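User: tokens in, sequence out, please.
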């Protein structure tokens, strides 16, 4: 399936809208278009966040476009949220691989993630 210009623009608008709402404005988020109905793991969209360089590629697959617009947007929000949770995920993987992760590092990840969630939740209140 070839991605149309309308689809590309729609995806870019969703990413831009939710980057702002999730306080990810400093991140560079790129859209990619996967071959086939879904990824090898069975996902219709995937993300590859790199918190060190604040870059993320969101790949959507053909079945993504068959979803309702609201479902597409929810999927994009989910993929963008990986930018927030990726540092905690990486610290856990390091621990599983017997790499040293300090208490201070874990606490810093927890506080940064908690503050992002607080910012997002509080934003919903003042938007009323």
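Assistant: Sequence out:
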């Amino acid at each position: 399936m070839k991605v149309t210009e309308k689809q590309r623009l729609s995806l870019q608008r969703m990413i831009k809208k939710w980057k702002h709402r999730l306080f990810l404005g400093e991140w560079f988020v790129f859209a990619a278009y996967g071959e086939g109905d879904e990824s090898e793991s069975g996902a219709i969209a995937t993300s590859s966040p790199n918190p060190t360089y604040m870059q993320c590629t969101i790949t959507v697959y053909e079945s993504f476009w068959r979803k309702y617009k609201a479902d597409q947007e929810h999927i994009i929000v989910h993929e963008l949220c990986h930018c927030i949770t990726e540092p905690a995920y990486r610290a856990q993987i390091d621990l599983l691989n017997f790499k040293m992760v300090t208490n201070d590092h874990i606490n810093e990840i927890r506080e940064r993630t908690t503050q992002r969630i607080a910012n997002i939740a509080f934003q919903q209140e003042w938007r009323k």
